[in-house]
Amino acid sequence: MNIGPYINKAIFPLGVQIRRMLPPPPVDLNIYRDHYAPDAQFYCIGSGWWSHPRWKNVDVPSEWYAPVQGTAGIDVPWDIATGEPVQIATASAEAIFCSHTTEHLRDQDVRHLFKEAHRILKPGGFFRLTCPDIMLYYEFYRRRDRSIAPYAVGEAFSIQDMFLNEFASQFSNIMRVGNPDGASTVRFSDEEFDRVFETMPLDDALDFFTTKIDYALQRKTMGAHINRWHFDKFRRYLEAAGFRNVRLSGYGQSFCPAMRDMKFFDQTHPQFSIYVEVER
Questions:
Q1: Are 175 and 199 in contact (CB under 8 A)?
Q2: How far apart are CA 227 and CA 206, in angstroms?
Q3: In angstroms, how far apart are the furthest CA atoms of the chain?
Q4: What integer pLDDT is reported at residue 9 of this predicted model?
Q5: Quick one: which of 178, 169, 114, 110 has its CA closest to 137?
Q6: Minimal CA–CA distance to 177: which of 195, 163, 194, 157?
Q7: What does the pLDDT average to over 204-208?
Q8: In angstroms, what is the C-alpha Rg of the chain?
Q9: Scanning 5, 100, 107, 110, which has its CA 20 to 30 A from the CA of 228?
Q10: Which residues pair with 42 in a beta bridge?
């Protein structure tokens, strides 16, 4: 069986590779003329391949993402894991978009990211987050239903391994086959995995695996997942950073005019993503 296509999708998304070969979508600048001052600032944090002429890309330069970063460019280099502030002025941003980034970061790094987002946003500015919805993955695992799997893998890997790959990739056989340099020597059998989820509350079971992540190993394969997010966890972390009125959003449902341009926003795996938005 050729497992290459879905290995790439799980570890370095195939959709990103395809988008690199397509012409960029047309940009509607009327949105910006109608709603914002000419010098309004917008930032995409963890931008990867993403690019928009009115938005600045914020990302950490890395060998892993170099093929896509070389295409999109980085306007503001920032390694969140250093704990250093991002080089953006306080209360200067109209909006921040962060798509499919928090699942690649440790809890402490996400706390830092959210505090910096709160600092650089203007009052009334919007912060929009999207990433894989761990509750959808959990239901896929709990129901043992491959028909609702986020990507097609046939029978090559177990349900347990597919679920594990979405929040602690380095322990999965998917990583061992597709990107062995980023795979851990620590192994969990399907029976051990089931026992954890059968005997612990869901968040504790997830933490059982994520707290064992080797972050040095993660830096070798930065596209792997080392974290998981649902609305309650997002809400707690955003409120701790100073945000209030955190809202569970949905595909295309931003209250921010700039982020309702669906040619650019909410386009990464909407079928298994969660959307959260907050106003400063």
A1: no
A2: 9
A3: 58
A4: 42
A5: 169
A6: 157
A7: 98
A8: 19
A9: 5
A10: 95
257 token code pair: 């005019």
Q: Which two tokens stand for residue 83?
A: 């704990």
Is residue 248 a contact partner of residue 238, using CB atoms and an 8 Å limit?
no
| Structure tokens given for 114 | 């959210």
Per-residue pLDDT tens digits for 133-161: 999 999 999 999 877 666 655 578 899 99
DSSP category for residue 227: -
3-state secondary structure of 77: strand
Contact 128, 95 (CB under 8 A): yes
| Structural domains in the chain, sorted by start | 10-133+229-279 (3.40.50.150), 134-218 (no CATH)
- The β-bridge partners of 278 are 127
What residues form DSSP beta bridges with 126?
Answer: 95, 279
CA separation (Å) from 269 to 38, 100, 131, 135, 252? 32, 9, 9, 15, 13
Strand bridging mode 56-59 / 41-45: parallel
Residues with Cβ < 8 Å from 139, sequence gap 6 or more? 148
Neighbours of 123 (CB within 10 A): 7
Answer whether residue 34 shows pLDDT above 90: yes
Burial 248-267 (b: 16+ CB within 10 A, else e): ebeeeebebebbebeebbbb
**Distance (Å, rounded) from C-alpha 190 to C-alpha 156?**
14
β-strand pairing of 121-132 with 273-279? antiparallel
Upper half-sphere CA count for residue 238 (Cβ side, 13 Å): 23
d(CA 24, CA 133): 27
